[in-house]
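Proteins fold reproducibly. Next comes a concrete instance:

***
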Amino acid sequence: MSTMYSRSVQHALVRPATATMRAANRPSMLLRSMSSSPTPSSKHTKPKIMLEDKNAFGFVRHNPRPPKPRKVGVTEIRGPYYSAMGKRYLQDVLETMGYHIDGLKFAGGSFSLFPEAQLRELIDLAHEHDVYVSTGGWLEHILTQSNPQTAVDRYLAQCKSLGFDVIEISTGFLSLPPDDWLRLIHKVHDAGLIAKPEIGIQFGAGGDTDAAELESMGATADPSKVVNLSKRFIEEGGVERIMIESEGITENVKSWRTDVVQAILREIPSEKVMFEAADPKVFNWYVREFGTDVNLFVDHSQIVQLSCLREGIWGMSDTFGKVVSFR
């Protein structure tokens, strides 16, 4: 089982009248996982990885990973974006490293470029390997349509029909009031999907703008903005996990803003946040500083390197042999 969000959980399309009713009806990561995971007799039953097999390499010291569905140590990978990815490519990734992967994200609106049949193949394949499937922050583009209410409704309906589990809500290029952001979160949940807000300190995040231009814009927010929005989304919106955008923190900056990360984790439980860390030096730092249970988003090409680091069997000079757990 995994943190995969099952499509079989039904959810009322009419918004509940109270926050209590909303929470009771909101799709749950764990329920989705348990209801749609293959049975033990399924042809997709996964063999043990050799590091967990006492008859193989189980004798080697390592950090045991929590079983799926995971609430900590969650790894979401980027799917097709910097390179194309078809069924055979993804199948290779999941058959070899599926134990270590919790989620698959289609960056931006990349999924809209696929023929429908091929996109469904990828989504179904991920589900077969107990991996939830997330959109990228394309909702940001949907909000700019001439009739955003209708466009958002159609977008959510189409994503649900395709089998997506999670809808990312990003506003890196938009100025959106927090109350409106909460309305979007509720709308996603009311559609029977999981809302995953992506929050950052850098306006213009999510694009290809270089550090100098971002700095010249003077659009870096105070870390308290991220903390305050996260609290609202968790407490009022029932959000289960928030993505922290890397731009302005560890990406497109002259020096890393580690103070921002510390400020977030002082106020928000670590299991409620996931840090974008699609750079080996960055995810090496996160694991070194916060341990093997930190939730991270990386590129699919980095899953082996990150998993070696989490398991404590490999690393860089500052983490090799130094990442441990006690459980």
Notes: The longest strand covers residues 194-199.
